[in-house]
Automatic annotation (TrEMBL), chain A:
NCBIfam families: PRK07558.1 (NF005733)
InterPro entries membership: ATP_synth_F0_csu (IPR000454), ATP_synth_F0_csu_sf (IPR038662), ATPase_proteolipid_c-like_dom (IPR002379), F/V-ATP_Csub_sf (IPR035921)
Site (Reversibly protonated during proton transport): 58
Organism, as annotated: Novosphingobium lindaniclasticum LE124
Function: Key component of the F(0) channel; it plays a direct role in translocation across the membrane. A homomeric c-ring of between 10-14 subunits forms the central stalk rotor element with the F(1) delta and epsilon subunits.
Residue span, V-ATPase proteolipid subunit C-like domain: 9-71
GO CC annotation terms, alphabetical: plasma membrane; proton-transporting ATP synthase complex; proton-transporting two-sector ATPase complex, proton-transporting domain
UniProt keyword Protein biosynthesis, yes or no: no
Transmembrane segments: 12-30, 50-73
Protein's gene: atpE
Protein name, UniProt field: ATP synthase subunit c
Length: 74, 252
C-alpha cells in the first residue's frame, strides 16, 4: 500500500470518531432531558452546564474531523 | 474549495506594512459588514424608552441574556465583562448568520470568516489574554493555585499540576478550533450535498429523482441545522469565555 492510499484510509477511519462523538452528544442531551423531566424546576438553571458538556463532547468529535482534514490536505 | 479562498479585493494585493501584506480581503470585508450590521442593530435599540418597541426589545433581550449568563457563571463580579462578552457573542453570531445568507441567488458570494482558524484563533487568544490579565492582576502569583485544586493529596500534586496546566493551556486552541471546525464542516457538508444535486441533475432525470431530490430535501434540513449550529457555537464560545473568566475572577 502506498503512502497516499494509507492516508486516505486513515482519514476514513478518523470519521469513526465523528460517529462516536455523535453518541456522546446524544447522551449529553438525553441525560439532561431525563433529569429535566424528573425535576423540571431545576432544569433551567442547569442549561449552562448542559452546553459545557455538549461543547466538550462535540470538540472531541471535531478533532477527528481535523485529523481527517490534516491527513487528506497536509 | 472556492468558498473558503481568501482573495484581495479592490486592487489591494500590494498593500503592506513593514513587509507584511495587509490587503483588504473578502474576509476583511465580511468582518466589516458584520461589525457595521451589529453597530446598526445595537444603535437601533438605544432609544431607552420606558415602554420598549420591538427593536429595543430585541437588543435588550440580547443584553439581558448575556447579563444573566455572566451573573450565573461568574457572579456579581461578572458585571464588568458584559460589554466584552456581548460584543464577542454578537460578532460571532452575526458572522455565522451572514455567512449563511443565500446571497448566491443574486450573484454575490457570502464569506464566513469564522470558518478560518486565523480569525477564530485571534478571538480565542483575546479571551485567553483577558483571563490571564485579570487573573494575574487580581490574584498576583496566587493565580497559580488554579492548577492545584483544594484538598489535593500531597503525592498527587505534581501529577494534578501537570494535568491542570495542560488543560489550561489548551483552552485557546479548543475555543478557536471548535468554532472554526463547526462552521467549516457545515459549509463543506452543504457544498457536498449541493454537488450531488447538480451532478445528478446533469446526469438525467432518472438519476435526479433517485439521488438529487433526496439530497436537496436533506440540504434544506441541514440548512436549518446550520442555523441552529451558528447560534449554538456563538453561545458556546461566549459561555466558555464566561467559565474561564470565572476561574480568573474567583479562582476555584
Amino acid at each position: 500500500m502506498d503512502a497516499e492510499a494509507a492516508k486516505l484510509l486513515g482519514a476514513g477511519l478518523a470519521a469513526i470518531g465523528c460517529g462516536l462523538a455523535s453518541i456522546g452528544v446524544g447522551s449529553v442531551f438525553a441525560k439532561f432531558l431525563e433529569g429535566a423531566l424528573r425535576n423540571p424546576g431545576a432544569a433551567d438553571a442547569q442549561q449552562g452546564r448542559l452546553f459545557i458538556g455538549f461543547a466538550g463532547a462535540e470538540l472531541l468529535g471535531l478533532l477527528s474531523f481535523v485529523v481527517a482534514a490534516l491527513l487528506i490536505f497536509a | 474549495m472556492h468558498q473558503f479562498s481568501i482573495q484581495p479585493l479592490f486592487g489591494s494585493e500590494g498593500w503592506s506594512i513593514a513587509g507584511y501584506n495587509i490587503a483588504f480581503t473578502n474576509s476583511t470585508l465580511w468582518m466589516a459588514i458584520a461589525a457595521v450590521t451589529l453597530a446598526f442593530f445595537v444603535a437601533g435599540g438605544m432609544k431607552r424608552q420606558l415602554v420598549p418597541g420591538r427593536w429595543q426589545m430585541a437588543v435588550e433581550s440580547f443584553t439581558g441574556f448575556i447579563d444573566g449568563m455572566l451573573a450565573a457563571n461568574v457572579g456579581p463580579g461578572g458585571k464588568k465583562y458584559v460589554p466584552y462578552i456581548f460584543s464577542l457573542f454578537m460578532f460571532i453570531l452575526f458572522a455565522n448568520f451572514l455567512g449563511l445568507l443565500p446571497l448566491g441567488v443574486i450573484g454575490l458570494h457570502a464569506f464566513t470568516f469564522t470558518s478560518h482558524f486565523s480569525a477564530t484563533g485571534v478571538l480565542a487568544v483575546l479571551s485567553f489574554a483577558i483571563v490571564l490579565i485579570v487573573g494575574f492582576a487580581k490574584h498576583k502569583l496566587h493565580f497559580f493555585s488554579l492548577f492545584v485544586p483544594h484538598g489535593t493529596p500531597v503525592i498527587m500534586i505534581p501529577l494534578i499540576f501537570c494535568v491542570e496546566l495542560i488543560s489550561f493551556l489548551v483552552r485557546p486552541f479548543s475555543l478557536g478550533l471548535r468554532l472554526f471546525v463547526a462552521m467549516m464542516a457545515g459549509h463543506v457538508l452543504l457544498e457536498v450535498l449541493s454537488s450531488f444535486v447538480i451532478s445528478s441533475g446533469n446526469a438525467g432525470i432518472g438519476l435526479f429523482a433517485i439521488a438529487g431530490l433526496p439530497s436537496f430535501i436533506l440540504m434544506v434540513g441541514i440548512c436549518a441545522l446550520e442555523l441552529l449550529v451558528a447560534g449554538i457555537q456563538a453561545y458556546v464560545f461566549a459561555l466558555l469565555t464566561c467559565v474561564y473568566l470565572n476561574d480568573a475572577e474567583n479562582l476555584h
